[in-house]
């Protein structure tokens, strides 16, 4: 019986040549493992008399290694149209409590009776809530 496994190897930078790489398994038998997602939301820029709201969840990415997330969302329906946002976040920004978040930014697709795009930017929610 064969079980499909996917993953990747990361060079850890250790000086010990016996332990200089780490294997991260990202799926086992077609199911994701050791991955996480982040919520994201915000408002677009105000252009052509209106703005849009958006919210979503990033695509999964591996935990415990340098990574980014892809994201995709459709904006709210304002001024008789919507826009799409999509892209890739920046690298993880670590928090003192051990979690992290990612910055994202870009422009929406062009749409509307007066064709236009909106700028958007923000930070994802962190994967571990800090309590101070």
Task: Put the structure in a nutshell.
By secondary structure, this protein is mainly beta.
Q: Give the ordered list of helices and strands.
A: EEEEEEEEEEEEE
The 3D shape can be described as elongated
Most strands sheet:
3 strands, antiparallel
Strand content: 35-45%
Q: Which structural class fits the helix and strand makeup? A: mainly beta
Pfam families: YmaF (PF12788)
Protein name: YmaF family protein
Task: Give the SSE map.
Layout: E1 5-11, E2 21-28, E3 31-32, E4 35-36, E5 39-43, E6 53-57, E7 61-62, E8 70-74, E9 84-88, E10 93-94, E11 100-101, E12 103-107, E13 119-123
Antiparallel strand pairs: 1-2, 2-3, 4-7, 5-6, 8-9, 10-11, 12-13
Organism: Paenibacillus ottowii
Protein name: YmaF family protein
Pfam families: YmaF (PF12788)
Protein described:
This protein is 0% helix and 42% strand. By secondary structure, it is an all-beta fold. The chain folds into 2 domains: 1-33, no CATH class; 36-123, no CATH class. The protein starts with a strand and ends in a 9-residue tail after the last strand. InterPro entries: YmaF (IPR024307). Pfam families: YmaF (PF12788).
């Amino acid at each position: 019986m064969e079980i499909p496994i996917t993953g990747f190897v990361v060079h850890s930078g250790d000086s010990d040549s016996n332990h200089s790489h780490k294997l991260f398994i990202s799926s086992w038998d077609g199911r994701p493992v050791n991955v996480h997602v982040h919520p994201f939301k915000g408002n677009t820029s105000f252009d052509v008399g209106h703005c849009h709201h958006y919210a979503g969840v990033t695509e999964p990415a591996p935990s415990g290694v340098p990574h980014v997330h892809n994201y995709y969302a459709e904006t709210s329906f304002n001024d008789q149209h919507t826009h799409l946002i999509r892209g890739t976040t920046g690298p993880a920004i670590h928090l003192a409590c051990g979690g992290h978040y990612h910055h994202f930014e870009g422009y929406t697709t062009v749409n509307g009776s007066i064709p236009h795009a909106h700028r958007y930017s923000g930070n994802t929610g962190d994967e571990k809530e800090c309590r101070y």
